[in-house]
Amino acid sequence: MTFLPARLIDVGDGLNQPRLVLTSTLWPRTPQGEATKYMALSYCWGILDGTSKLLTTTHDTIRSRIENIEVGAMPLAFQDAIAVARKLTIQYIWIDSLCILQDDARDWQTESSKMAEIFSNAYLTLIAAAGSGCNDSFLISRGLPGPSCAIPLKMNHELNVEGEFSLRFRQHHGRGDKMADIRGSRWITRGWTFQEERLARRALIFGSSKFFLDCRSLERSQDSDRYQSRPAWVASATGNLGEDRVPEPESTATAQVWDDWQTLCSHYSYRELTFPKDKLPAFSGMASRFAKKVHSQYLAGLWRQNLMHDLFWTPVTIMTKPSNYRSPSWSWASLDGRI
Known about the structure:
By secondary structure, the protein is α+β, with helices and mostly antiparallel strands. It is built from eleven helices and 13 strands. The chain has helices at residues 62-67, 76-87, 96-99, 105-112, 115-121, 177-182, 191-198, 232-237, 255-268, 284-294, 307-310; strands at residues 7-10, 19-22, 38-42, 92-94, 124-128, 148-155, 161-168, 203-206, 211-214, 218-221, 228-229, 298-299, 302-303. Strands 2-1-4-3-5-8-9-10-11 form a nine-stranded mixed sheet, sandwiched between helices. Strands 6-7 form a two-stranded antiparallel ribbon. The longest helix is centred in the last third of the chain and has 14 residues, at 255-268. The model is unreliable at 231-249 (pLDDT under 50). Pfam families: HET. It comes from Hyaloscypha variabilis (strain UAMH 11265 / GT02V1 / F). This is HET-domain-containing protein. Residues 38-196 form the Heterokaryon incompatibility domain.
């Protein structure tokens, strides 16, 4: 059965404004038999103050959102995402602040528990890694690196074309290209974005100087016509978690699979959360997808089948205990800090 989130944004066609739609009113498949496509936006909210606000859907605004959502009232990152969806002729997009009722704890809990399905079933995940928050545009001008020269061009035949074209020496920097481009971004420091990228079937990543396309087994940047294989640990620990990236789950989890999980937990512990209570919810999509591989009981960030090894987590930095209970003391998720 085709999965759709509870709500999506119909991006409109430029003449009609976007609007919120309840997917219970949509056919899960097109008349041609294809699954209804939607795009998911991965971004960070940023610092919100009196002059910088996030557009949300609440019980008070849901009726007006269903009628229309004025593009000009959206944060710049949302406007850019709408523009990309229209260019790619993807009719629907999922944006958390608009597709989850922000003043309804039950709706938030229900929808946030579906993150694995939302991102692994999205036709494309759009990652806004450029900028510091939703009010920054990620469709910025990105010049290609390397020296270049302009060459005049004039064609006096029937075409009568006149102008210039540019020759550029292209520099290849290897596999670290993408990480170097997004390492300084706020997006890569946030807790929720960790699983959003890793659960994606395919991701279009807008960095500070380039954009990148990641799919099941390959990576490509805007200035490269060469495909690169994903690093082995990414393919096994993260790439294989997405709906299109995973073979049939193994009947018996191997030592490498458990090592992959511990690597994920370690990398996730470096991320930051606005609300500490989200420590496990922001990682729940990874757990639900991983459960299909290991067939074991999930225990607040650890697995029963590998419990003796999972308990050997070690702090890398001084860890602090949150004021409110979050998980058992034997779980790494009970503390704030890196492991």
